[in-house]
Amino acid sequence: MAAYGLYTxxxxxxxxxxxxxxxxxxxxxxxxxxxxxxxxxxxxSDRSVDYYLMAASRDLVTAFPWATGAAALWIVIxxxxxxxxxxxxxxxxxxTRQQQPRLYNLLENLCISRGIPxxxxxxMDSPALNAFATGLNQRQYxxxxxxxxxxxxxxxxxxxxxxxxxxxxxxxxxxxxVIAVIIxxxxxxxxxxxxxxxxxxxxxxxxxxxxxxxxxxxxxxSDSDSKGSGGGAIIVVIIAIALILVAWLLSxxxxxxxxxxxxxxxxxxxxxxxxxxxxMISALRKIENRGELPGATSAVMELCVDNPRExxxxxxxxxxxxxxxxxxxxxxxxGHDPGPLALPSDGPGGPDDGPQQPAAETDQPVQMPWGDxxxxxxxxxxxxxxxxxxxxxxxxxx
Length: 398
Description:
Elements: H1 6-43, H2 49-90, E1 93-94, H3 101-114, E2 120-124, E3 131-134, E4 142-146, H4 147-152, H5 155-171, H6 173-207, H7 209-220, H8 223-257, H9 260-274, H10 277-287, H11 298-301, H12 322-333, E5 366-368, E6 371-373
Parallel strand pairs: 2-4
Antiparallel strand pairs: 1-2, 3-4, 5-6
Helix pairs in contact: 1-2, 1-6, 1-8, 1-9, 2-6, 2-8, 3-5, 5-9, 5-10, 6-8, 7-8, 9-12, 10-12
């Protein structure tokens, strides 16, 4: 599905994400098949590879409705209680206008000005600089902001972060990410269950049950049948383990692949809502390397504005780097990059301690997909990125 602009990119990502989620759900049946292979070996350890494969296929057909029902039950439970689970992990609590008038008014004004239904507002007591959106329908949508973010960012930057999360809600990213996390949890549950089965199988083998069964069958059959049957059971167990490992690995890769392009689209959507690319850039620079939520699971971190947990060789990184996101905003939204920003709370040796080198700016006009504008330096260099008087690609809201 080709994508030529912001909204077609959103539609394209939704289409690809649904395909990926469908493939992720199929991994559950792969795990059931692997479990059936192990079960057949436990029941009959003296058969050939072909027998085990055919028997496991029959078992899969029999177990198909049960596996589907169990997965559906898991999803239903997560549908109604996922927010409570996340709040239990993060400590997020609902806040009202009286409790947090500044944050509440910023979110309400942004929603009213753009005709967006206002989600619930939650806060978690953490010095980390981060925020995330959750929910699977209009009644469940919520935006959670840390106290550290509220204290470190100015109003324009907080508004940009809120616009980022509202874009995730508008684009359907939140639903897809929550569903992906739920299904990945199902895959992880079945994977752990079958690994426990394999552990018990190995213990029984060392205890003599598997070996004695093979030895009894060898005494009553030919030498070639004995070799084929014993080797067949071993081969099938190896196949089952490989299927479990591949299913788990693909569930993680597919789940993480859903979020990368979405972060760039959410950044662009925030600029569209606030008309202020510089605020989004400076917010990202302040959040950079300061977003780790202690005690939060990887599933929660995948929903955040920034996930500082990097995977092996960037394979499992759920978010593009802050530098690449800032470069995209500079190139396509005409923002200005101030470079890494230090905060008073950092102190000596903080994440951004040391000399800062602002990004070089160009006087050449930049062609953007939503119109032309001059991406040259701001008129007053002494002003910060969030205070730049230059106009954004859709105008600048005062």
